[in-house]
Amino acid sequence: MGESSTDDRRLLRLHILPTFEDLDLDQITAPRVRSCRSERLDSTGAETTVAKSYRLLKAILETAVEDELIRRNPCRIRGAGKETAAERPVATVDQVDALADALGLRWRLMVFLGAYGPLRPDEQAELRRKDVDLDNLTVRVRRAAPELTTGKRAEGPTKSEAGKRLVVLPAFLRTDLRRHLDWYAEKGPAGLLFVGEKGKPFRRSTFGRKWRAARTKVGLPDGFRFYDLRHTGHTLTTRSGATLKDTMVRAGQPTERAALIYQHSDLERQREVAAGLDQLVRARREAADDQASGTDVARDTWTGSDNKEAPGRWRGAFSWSG
Prior knowledge:
The chain is mainly α.
């Protein structure tokens, strides 16, 4: 099966059929199409995916017009099929750590896998205990579980064949990974890695409220999505010394150009990429700790001065708000 055909089937299964499969063709009206598109944009923020889905639906209904099954194509929103998504924002290492802290221990690992995997949310939702190798610090991505507009989990294949991959994690994640397996993952080899407080599978709708609160606490813009952690991971991986082909393999990118690249980035190279990412993040965290320690020392020194004007003046000099 061709790459575009696989993508179309996924779009049909996840983004079109849940809304339209129980309707007769003449019941798929322009207002319904407009309402569906608006709802998908609001709930997911995935402009590119919504544009692709709209384009596919329009093509299907255009065939129905040609076959005289309907009189007119109800997909009439100008520009709705164009992919014009803006460049996504990138978080810093400090911001990723802050998001993980704000979300709490149960969801901390999900943030790190999103940024340093970088794994898609749908892939994380279907990770099982058997997919994790703590000794070798790897995660095997086998399947995905996107959430339909109905709220139902749709367990199935990954976004593409390239999505099935072995991800080598940076060494600094070992403690978080072990703790999560001990405290939060379901028991047994087939147990889900991520479940909610009541033991239910990960749900985008429930997690979304927690994410928005954490994002506000950290001070990231409202437009920063969980999926943007993946873009952050791409950027940091490249900065750590990875080549384009290494990054494509690590992220499971399904492009024709990447198909040839996959053959040249083996497991050993992926370990080197993970090590570079580990070194980059550790260095940034150590720098942040040193900066905080320096600020505390300076504050203690000048606060203890006999000069009553000095403490306030020097506190201002050592303000690290920037």
